[in-house]
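Dear all,

This email documents one entry for the complex benchmark we are building for the journal club exercise. For each entry we list the sequence lines for every component of the assembly. Then comes the predicted three-dimensional structure of the complex as a token string, followed by one or two observations. Please use this as the template for your own entries, and keep the labels exactly as they appear.
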Amino acid sequence: MNTSAGSKSYRIAVDCMGGDKGPAEVVFAAAMALEDIGPEDTLILIGQEEILTPLLQKAHIVDNPRIKIHHASEIIAMDDKPMQAIKSKKDASMIRALEMVKAGEADAMVSTGNTKVLVGAGTLKLRPMPGADRPALAAIMPNHRGHFILMDVGANPESTPEHLVHNAVLGSLYAQAALGMEKPRVGLLTVGTEEGKGGERINHTHAMLKKLGDQINYVGPVEGFDMFEGEIDVVITDGFTGNVLLKSLEGLFYMLQGLIKEKSGFNLLYALGFLLLMPVLSKLKHHLKPERNGGAPLLGLSALVMKAHGSGNRNAIRSAIRLGREALSHNMTSRMQDALIIAKEKLEESDLIVQ
Amino acid sequence: MNTSAGSKSYRIAVDCMGGDKGPAEVVFAAAMALEDIGPEDTLILIGQEEILTPLLQKAHIVDNPRIKIHHASEIIAMDDKPMQAIKSKKDASMIRALEMVKAGEADAMVSTGNTKVLVGAGTLKLRPMPGADRPALAAIMPNHRGHFILMDVGANPESTPEHLVHNAVLGSLYAQAALGMEKPRVGLLTVGTEEGKGGERINHTHAMLKKLGDQINYVGPVEGFDMFEGEIDVVITDGFTGNVLLKSLEGLFYMLQGLIKEKSGFNLLYALGFLLLMPVLSKLKHHLKPERNGGAPLLGLSALVMKAHGSGNRNAIRSAIRLGREALSHNMTSRMQDALIIAKEKLEESDLIVQ
């Protein structure tokens, strides 16, 4: 596998099929992403050629040397099950993209398709990196001062203390690569910050995280309301809680939007009020907009897989490509592999690993 | 124990000490609550007499025959540990309030103090009702159309499938008592609505809930973003996820408030905009205000214990007293006991209980 460490140009495979908004959205995202990535980088668009070619024409990138098409005849559907999809749809665009990364024909892949299949097929094709058993999805979320990383947001609903510790190490490096933080503050999400609260799994994880010493900047257990204040840069939780949290917050935003519309109705004075507040609202929207950071890497695999999340529109996909490129230029995957080995040694010395 | 079934007047013990905002807030809440409860009902205020008497004078309820003081010399602090507090602070107001309920001298108790001690001491003094192992906290939350019940929001972080099923039965009856719903729709919070997603615990719980047949109106697994749409009346989850969710949503509200203030700064046009939108904002605030439903019962105990949550201000405490009174007049605790027995029989027939 070619992780392209040290090289200056990267090839990113983009799975164009199977997203909620269709391949056009992905193709336009790729066209926009050309502005973000390096001048020598290539985007390999994977999907049904007869569908992609006219879309590339529309997006004026059909003759662009930095864009390539790679044909794949099948599509992973949103309700496909992982094992079944991997077996029966060997020529699906998502599977082909993973195989290109495996074969060293691409340095990373981006997909907007079925998360469950991406996690399953990604794990099977690319394997977890030594020291990590299971990959985790890391989302970038807004807080009062800027952004923080929440992980796992859904790859592994039954995370063990070991998985949570791996995620703390991986998340910390991702915060460096994606948010430019030097010493990201890592917190363990729980239901009370005194030691002993939150159950056996939290206590055990907390003890292990403390043993990592200065390998990560672990600040201790954090509660739900600490998350948005801006004092924690990486919030670690299991994939069940993280996924519920991510989707609930999304649901809450939609509710607020809907309620404001409903409670205001049509009224000229209200319209004027909204108009006057437009600069505030647009600053707020810009700060909160999930699209700005609409990509979540599947951390812990031996090569980089990005899931475009949120609305899955072109802005979200564009940002997934940009975040993937940033991670590549930080040589993130190889740093993570090194860091996990160090963490493992520290924990073995301290006798805290239970398998 | 006197659950006062069928009687028309109730005595509610109110723990006045140990809340974040101090006893004055509780005394003023009690004074306000006199408007909500029945004309024959009594509120028994428990705490240090020398502190409470002047506060009652201030609140103009010192001679009110519906208000009584019951002296207790000690206070449970916010950082007290359950077992230690129960042993060493026998004359704490919270413990005395629980003992009055146990002795049949009060029909329910309300506290704004340390949740962990309330759960521990409540379970020890009042015992779980037959069929329930552990109590759960049920919070009322806003959704697009009105309100729903989220439980458990923190009493039992390590809920088993059996606990979750008990909570579904209890929560359904609480929605009837507190929100006036006839056939509340019950959903099981998970990370994907297809069967088989969410892990073993969710699958097992789902199978048991289906076996309850028409005892509850179980609509199946629900995801984070379904929660606020208004299609689910009772959302069941473990006490870890529920607590994280409750506190995160609270944190998010504070963040939004803070961001709006910051991004607007001082500007006359913005001030005018806010002024014009005042009716919308106040309708929105009224809909979302946690104080309106600032009480969470500790369901599954053999008598009614209410925790005043959220800000713990007088409005929240007043609403906890009101919700407690409503539950009493619905004879909720005894209905719950009957319902749990029926549920247990159904599950035993279906062979789905694993202990």
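Observations: Confidence is low (pLDDT under 50) at residues 1-6 of chain B. Chain B touches chain A through 60 residues (CB under 8 Å).
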